[in-house]
Amino acid sequence: MSGTITDVPGIRVGHAEDTNAWTGCTVVIAEDAAVCGVDVRGSAPGTRETDLLDPVNLVSHVHAICLSGGSAYGLDAASGVMAYLEEQGIGLDVGFGVVPIVPAAVLFDLSIGNPKVRPTRDMGYAAASLASKEPVAQGNVGAGAGATVGKLNGFSQAMKSGIGSASRVLPNGLVIGALVAVNAVGHVKDPDSGEILAGPRDEEGGIVDSLELMQQHAFNLIPPGTNTTIGVVASNAVLTKAEAKKIAQMAHNGLARTIWPIHTMYDGDTLFAMGTGQVKASIDLIGTLSAEVLAEAVVRAVRTAQPAGGLPACSSMQRTE
């Protein structure tokens, strides 16, 4: 087992990125399609095909999920994923060919690297074509290439973040995995130790508690359009769309345990939940563990990130005991 989301049977992941412009996209492919739900908690989302995932709507299975940088421009990457899947004959059979179902969500990374370079159709195609069962690369790759955290003191005092993944295998054969690109306005902490791993910095370069900053100012410190954490939790469970949506809702608890603040007016925090349909299990169990695994993936996203765009990362900060 790799300890990443590709441990889930039927799930493959591919990244593509531009490390000169610091942007990229990540594709999660369900080899035999997957039941999917979504829960959007941020108030400034950039999404595609999420209405389709409402339990009252017709189509119950998706073929891939696309996570992308580039703000709303990055939604174009999903078209490339569709093109790749169509070439493989993968999609909803409509009688005149196939239509791949590829929901997508984007994060804002225009403040790092080159804002005129965004994930394109070609980048989405490349990420889909590279999708594999190998352990997921983490840090400054894919949708995490331009991810940052800690923007409450201005972007120049922020820190580099990235994309992270984790998994959990139960004795009954249930496998739960998570993948998340962490692009938070505030700080990220280790939920076990309470240590702030990355966040806004002061003039001396030390990390500042986001809540303390917010309490010191009567006005809103959150820069509009600079945030959003997006991710996928997946399992090999048998799910309905309604159950998948509930799991996505519960998984957001993993963000709340690690990111402060979360789900603000200027975030588009969005989580997808996928089920590949091999194991029957309690929805409460799956949702609870999805939150735990997602929290672990958030921590990994920050710990594996490397300095970029003039910003330090958790891995580069000197710490004293």
UniProtKB/TrEMBL annotation:
<dbReference type="InterPro" id="IPR016117">
    <property type="entry name" value="ArgJ-like_dom_sf"/>
</dbReference>
<dbReference type="GO" id="GO:0004177">
    <property type="term" value="F:aminopeptidase activity"/>
</dbReference>
<comment type="similarity">
    <text>Belongs to the peptidase S58 family.</text>
</comment>
<dbReference type="InterPro" id="IPR005321">
    <property type="entry name" value="Peptidase_S58_DmpA"/>
</dbReference>
<protein>
    <submittedName>
        <fullName>P1 family peptidase</fullName>
    </submittedName>
</protein>
<dbReference type="Pfam" id="PF03576">
    <property type="entry name" value="Peptidase_S58"/>
</dbReference>
